[in-house]
Amino acid sequence: MTKFIDLTLNGISTGAIYAAVALALVLIWRATRIVNFAQGGMLMLTTFIASAVINSTGSYVAGFLVALASGLLLGALVEVILIRRVEQAPPLNAVIVALGLLVLLQATAGMIWGNTPRSFPAAFSIRGYRVGGTRLLFAPNDTFILLAVIAVALSLAILFRATSLGLRMRAAAFQPEVARLLGVRVGRMFTLGWALAAVVGSLAGVLVAPSVFVGPNNFDPILIFGFTAAVLGGLDSPLGAVVGGLALGLVLSYVSGYEGSSMVTLAALAVLIVVLMGRPTGLFPAARERRV
Amino acid sequence: MRFTTAVAAVAAIGALTAAGCGSSSSSGSSSAPGVTATSITFGTHQPLTGPAAPGYSEIAVASQAYFNYVNAHGGVFGRKIHLIIKDDAYNPANTVNVVHQLVLQSNVFGIFEGLGTPTHTKVVGFLNASKVPDLFVASGCPCWDNGSSQPFTFGWQPNYTIEGKILGQYIKQHFAGQKVGVLYQNDDFGQGGLAGIKDEVPASDIVSTQPYESGTTTLAPEITALKTSGAKILVDFTVPIYTAIGQLTSFTLGWKPQLVISSVGIDPITVGGLLKAVSKGKASGTGLIEGAITDGYLPSNTDTSNPWIQLFMKVHAQYDPSAPFDGNVEYGMANGYTLVQALEAAGKNLTRQGLIDAINSHGGSWTGPGIVPYRYSSSDHGGFAGAELARVQGGKIVEFGGPLTTDPTATGAISPFTGTQPAPPASGIPSS
Amino acid sequence: MSAAVARSTLLRSLLLTVLGGAGLWLLSVLFSSYNDLQLASGAFFFIVLAGLTVLIGVNGQISLGHGGLMAVGAYTVALLIGRQNWALVPALLAAAAAAAVIGIALGAAASRLRGPYLAGATLAFAVGLPGLADKFPGTFGGENGLTINPPTPPSVLGSSFPLERWEAWIAGAGALVAFFVLYNLLHSGTGRKLRAVRDDEIAASLCGMHVARTQTLTFVISAACAGLGGGMLAVVLQLAQPGAFPLQLSLSLLTAVVLGGLGSLAGAVWGAALLVLLPGWTNDAAHSFSLSQNVSANLQLAVYGVVLIGAMLVWPSGVQGGIRAIRGRIKPIERRAT
Predict the structure, then answer these.
(1) Candidates 3.40.50, 1.20.1070, 3.40.1000, 1.10.3470; correct CATH number of A2-117+136-278?
(2) Over the stretch C238-295, which tens digit does the pLDDT of each residue have?
(3) Least CB-CB distance to B187: which of C41, C142, C244?
(4) What is the DSSP letter of C243?
(5) What is the CATH number of domain B39-158+301-384?
(6) Looking at this predicted complex, what is its ipTM?
(7) How would you label C76-95 residue by residue, b for 16+ Cβ within 10 Å and e otherwise?
(8) What is the pLDDT of residue B341?
(9) C-alpha distances in angstroms, A133 versus A129, B253, B378, C336?
(10) Which of A6, A112, C168, C303 is 20 to 30 A away from residue A276, measured at CA?
C-alpha cells in the first residue's frame, strides 16, 4: 500500500512539471497556432541565467524573478526576430526554425556554462512530510510546485475567457485579417503570447531544476513528456494541459513502479494513442465545427 | 524530376563531397600510417555534446593535456603525439562514421581511449579487420578482454565485474547477514557490477535489485522499492548524476542506508557539486555521501601528498586549467601516461604490429599511476586487475585496506596485491 | 523518341534511373573509401527521405516518428541476417514489409489525427519504440543492440574490392529502386489522389476518394521506405541499436526534407546530401578557429542551428524551391532572346 501511495505522490509531483511545460505550449498554440519546439531550450537558458544570479547574489528570490523576467524578454525577442518572419509561411517552416533555435540555445548554453550540470536550489524544503512513522515521497517543495501550476492554469483560463486582452489574443490567432480590421494589434498580440508562454516555461524550469539539475540537455525528457501531455489534454485547453500532465505523470509513475522503467516511454505512447483514438483533438477539445 | 536536374544533382553532390573532405591526412608508410619522423597521430571518439557529455567530455581533453606536456619535453623518440578528438554524441551510428573517417581519411596511427560500450562495440570489428591499434578503451566492459579474437583491442579500466566482486567481498565480510539492495544502470556497466556483487554476496542477503534506464528524470519508483524491501545497505552502480538523484530521493524519504558506490559514480567533486544547492544547506555538498564505501584503482585525486597527483596537478595547471581537477581529468591523464608507456616500449621503429607486440609482452609488468597491475598478455587484453577499497571521509576519497586483484569469473579468488606503487619518473614521462 | 519519353512516365523513370545509376557508379569508383561510406549513407537516407517527402509534401500529413520506423527495418535486417542467416535482398524486403505493417497501424491512427496531434503521436512513437530493446534484451540485445557481419563483396569483383564501395553499390541500388517506384507513383493517378487529399479533404471525398484510406496508404508507403532505409543502415553500418535511433534522428529527417524542398524527389536528394555533409561542414567551420575542444564542439551545433534558421528564413521552399525559382527566372530570359 505504501508503494501505491508513494507512486501516486511521485506521479503528482512529476505530473505537475509536465503540466507546467504543457501550459506554455498551450499558450503559444492558442496565441499563434504554432507548436514551439524550442520551449525546452528557452526555459533551459532562463534557468541557467537564474542559476548564475543565485550563485553571485545568494538570493533565491532574485534568481526566481530574473528567470521570469528574462523569459518575458526572450519570448518577445524570439517572436519579433524569428517567428514573425515565418508566420506567413507553411507551418512546417516555423517548426524547423524552432528546432534550429533549440539546437542553437543548447549549444550557446554549453559554450557559456559548459556541459557539466549544476545544482539548483529548491524554494522550500525537500524533506518529505512525516505521516505516522514514515516520511512520504512528497515535500513542501512539491506542494509549492503543484500550487504554482494550478495558479498559472487558472490565470490563463481567466485571461482567455474573461478578459478583453484574452479575447484579442484569440482573435489574432484565429482570424488575423478580421482582427486587424477590428482594430486589434495582431503583431503585438503574437509577441505578448510568446512572451507570456516563455514566462510560464521559465517558471517550469525553475520548479523542476532542483531535481534534474541545470544543463544544456537536462530538460529534454521533461519537454517530450510536456508536449505529450499538451497533446493529450488538448492544445487549446489550459485545463487540459493540467489534467493531461497529471494523468501522464500518474500513469508513468505506476508503470515505472510496477512494470519497470524500460516500459515508461512505451506507456506514454500507449496512453496517447488510446486517448487520441477516442478524442482526436485531446481530452478537452476546442469547439468543433459541424461535419457536413 | 527533370533529366537535367537529375544529372546536376548527382554531379553537384559528387563535387560537394569531394570539396568537403578537406581534412588533412598525416603521411606515413603503409605499415605505420599516422607516423612521421616528428609526429604520431591518434584518434578518439568521445561524447562531447549531448546527454552523455557531462563529465566524460573532460577525459580526452585531459589526455591531450598530458600529451602536450610530453611534447613540450621532447615527445617520444623525438615525435610529438597528436590526438584528434571527434564527437559522436554517444550515438553509435556517428561512432562508426567518425572512426571510419579517422582511419580512412585522417590516416591515424591508432584509436585511443574510445569511450562507451554501446558505441565502441560497433567499431571493434572494423578496427581489428583493418589491423588498427585500438588502445585502452574507456569502458569497463569485458568485451575488450579477449586478446585472441580481438588482437588489436585493449581495455584499460578495471572490469565492472571485478569492481563488483571487490565491493561485494567487503559487504560479505563487514555487513554479513544484513539486507542488501542494488540500484544499477540497465546496461553493461550496471549489469556487470551486479554480476560481481552476486558472485560474492550470498543470494539470501540481496533483497532487491532495481535497474533504471539512463535518461530517466526520476528514481523515485526504484528508491521507494529499495526502501520498502528493508535494505540496510544500498549498492549504487550509477553514474554521478543518478547517484545524486538517488540521494535526493533518499533524503526526501528520510532513508539513510549504508552506501556502497561504484568508482564510476562516486567522484565527490561531481556528485557534491550536484547536491550543493538543494534545500538551503541542509542536504549540501558531499554530506549525503559521507561514509560511503567505494573503490579506486588510481590514487585519490584529493591526496596531494601522492607524487602522481602532484604530477597531474602540475600538468593540469599548465595545460588544462579550465576543467576542475576531478576524477575524469585524473582518468584522462593516467590513460595518456599508459599510452606513452606503450609507445616507449615499442621503440623508435614504430609500426602498428610492433606496438601491439610491445603491450602483449611488457604491459603486464608496467608500473604507473595505477595502484594495481595490468592484466595484459597476448590472450588477456583486460585492463587493471583490481582496485583498492576506499571511503568518503570529509568529502574526500580515502583509500584503505591495500589493493586487491581478481578476475571477472564468478569463482576467481580475490587476493591482495603486495607490490608498492613507485613514484613517477622525475621528468613525469615514462622511460623506454 | 523524346516525345515518347516525355509522354510515358515509365520510360522517363527508366531513363532517369539508368542515368542515376551510372552517375552513382561513377562516383563510387572515383571516391575514396570514406567517401564511399558517405555515399552509402546518403543513399539510405534518400530512401527514407523520399518516403517522408511523399507523406508530408505530397499528402499533407506529418510524422516525427520515422526514426522509429527506420529502427524497425534495421532490427529486422539485423535479426534475419545476423541470427537466421537470411540473404541480403530477402532481408531488406522483409525490413520494408515489417515497417509497412507497423505503418498500417500508425496510418490508421494518423488518418484520424491532424497537425500537432499527429505530430505528438508520431513523436511518442519515436521516443517509445527504442524502449522495446531494453524490455526484451534477449531478442533485441538491450543497450548494446545487435551487430551483423559486413556484407562480403562477391568473389567476381576480386579479393581487394573495397567493402565501402560494395556497401555504396548495395545502398545505391536500393535508392534507385525506391526512386523508380516513387517516381511512377507520383506521376500516376494515385499520385494525383494524394495531392487532392492534401489540398482539400472535403472536395476530395466529394469526388469519391476515400480520404482515410488514401492517407493510410501513403503512411504505409512512407513507412516501407523508412524500413528499407533503416535496413540499409543496418547493412552499411552493421548495427541495430536504440542509441542509433534517438528522437534527434526523426527531427533531423524532418528538417532535411523541408530544407531539401518539400514534395519532390529532387528535394529528397538534396536533403540526403545535407544530412550526410552538413555535420562535417559545420565541424570544419567550427574548428577553423582554434578554440578549446568543448567550445568548438558546441560551436559546431550552434552553426548547425543557425544554418537551419537561416535556410528557412532565406529559402522557405528549400533547396529545390530555390533552384526552381532560379530556373523560373532564367526561362523568360531565354524566351526573350530567341
Answers:
(1) 1.10.3470
(2) 999 999 999 989 999 999 999 999 889 999 999 999 999 988 888 888 878 777 777 8
(3) C142
(4) G
(5) 3.40.50.2300
(6) 0.90
(7) bbbbbbbeeebeeeebbbbb
(8) 94
(9) 11, 11, 59, 92
(10) A6
The reply to whether residue A107 touches residue C299, judged by beta carbons under 8 angstroms, is: yes
**pLDDT, tens digit, for every residue of B64-91?**
999 999 999 999 999 999 999 999 999 9
For chains A and C, CB pairs below 8 A equal 152
Alpha-helix residue ranges (DSSP H) falling in chain A: 2-32, 39-57, 60-78, 84-86, 91-113, 140-162, 164-174, 176-181, 186-212, 220-233, 238-258, 264-278
DSSP conformation letters of B297-354: SS--TT-TTSHHHHHHHHHHHHH-TTS--SHHHHHHHHHHHHHHHHHHHH-SS--HHH
Contact C128 A91 (CB under 8 A): no
Nearest to C302 among A85, A111, A276 (CB): A111
Give the model's pLDDT for residue A254: 94
How confident is the model at residue B4, as a pLDDT? 54
| Nearest beta carbon to residue C128 from set A93, A232, A265 | A265
- Put simply, whether A269 touches C (Cβ < 8 Å) is yes
Domain B161-296 is found in CATH 3.40.50.620: no
CB within 8 Å: A130 and B254: yes
pTM beyond 0.95:
no
Domain locations in chain A as residue ranges: 2-117+136-278
Chain C touched by A273 (CB under 8 Å) = yes
* Fold matches, B39-158+301-384 and B161-296: yes
The domain ranges of chain B are: 39-158+301-384, 161-296
Distance of CA A169 to the CA centre of its chain: 19
Using CA coordinates, name the residue in chain A closest to C63: A92
Reported in sequence order, the residue ranges of B96-230 that DSSP labels E, i.e. its strands, are: 110-112, 134-137, 153-155, 180-185, 206-212
